[in-house]
Amino acid sequence: MGLIYVSLFIGQMRYKLDEIDSTNKFILSLSKETPQPEGTLVSAEYQTDGKGQIGRYWHSEKGKNLLCSILLKPSFLNPEEQFVMSQMIALALKEVIGQYTTEKVSIKWPNDLYINDDKVCGILIQNQLKGKFISKTIIGFGLNVNQADFPQQLPNPTSLFQQTGQVFDREAILQEICDRLEHYYLLFKSGRLIEINERYHEVLFRKDQVCQFRENKTSIFEGVIIGIGEYGKLRVKTIDEVRLFDFREIEMIL
Ligand code: BTN
To answer: Are 163 and 103 in contact (CB under 8 A)?
Structure first.
């Protein structure tokens, strides 16, 4: 019999909303008004102004997917090390998604979840600083669960339904995500960052493969992802050097 781990603090305080502009915005303003315990979770059936990375909009059909934000308080975390937050939530999601499909699930740097070459989940992390340290982290994620069709303009979305033809219990999936995230957060709190980093590298999308990249929205070049460097930057080996890229500087051409 396997061990069943149930989260102790992530998701224990829960706000279940029908409709909101953005769960990230909601939890941020709520926690400013009234202090919320670490692990507080907000979920919504629909977002009218869902936030994606780099100012993009996050699309999700009403009542089909998981749209959630979790409040953590890693007050001991130096902002320079904040990439570990991305690694932990991405790993938690990767493991849970992997239980629902036999297809290959990987983490596309920095923190998108892919099933083969399609995006099934996006993550948006927002930090608040107090002095030199991070006082609050809002981890927002949108996981496409039961949505059957997506607008054509989205580049390469997928859902668990599209992958398997099955409709899933979103609450059960969410509980597993809370459990896995808590597992990684406790590893992190006990100083086991190397394990987290190694695990992340093992499941990194197209690691050690030749890929095409677009740099600063203009020039195209070829290189091999060899891993993650300082501040969570992507390390790419080109024909003559190893270069480090920030999220905004580079885009992988799929
Ligand atoms: C991305 O662009 O890949 C990140 C998408 C993050 C979307 C989630 S949905 C729940 C949470 N609330 C938001 O407004 N955004 C995040």
So the answer is: yes
User: pLDDT of 136-165, one tens digit each?
Assistant: 999 999 999 999 999 999 999 999 999 999
Ligand 1 in contact with 137 (CB < 6 A)? no
CB 123 within 8 A of CB 232: no
C-alpha pair distances (Å), 40 with each of 35, 97, 193: 10, 22, 23
**Nearest alpha carbon, ligand 1 atom 16:** 140
Nearest CA to ligand 1 atom 15: 51
**Protein fold of 210-253:** SH3 type barrels. (2.30.30)
pTM for this one? 0.96
d(CA 96, CA 150): 22
Q: Is the CB of 110 under 6 A from ligand 1?
A: no
Helix (H) or strand (E) holding 253: strand 250-253
Residue with tokens 């190397």: 194
**142 pocket-lining for ligand 1 (C-beta < 6 Å):** yes
210-253 matches 2-202 in CATH topology: no
d(C-alpha 40, C-alpha 50), whole Å: 19
Class of domain 2-202: alpha beta
* CB-ligand 1 contact for 11 (6 Å cutoff): no
Domain segments of the chain as ranges: 2-202, 210-253
The Cα 7–Cα 39 span in angstroms is: 10
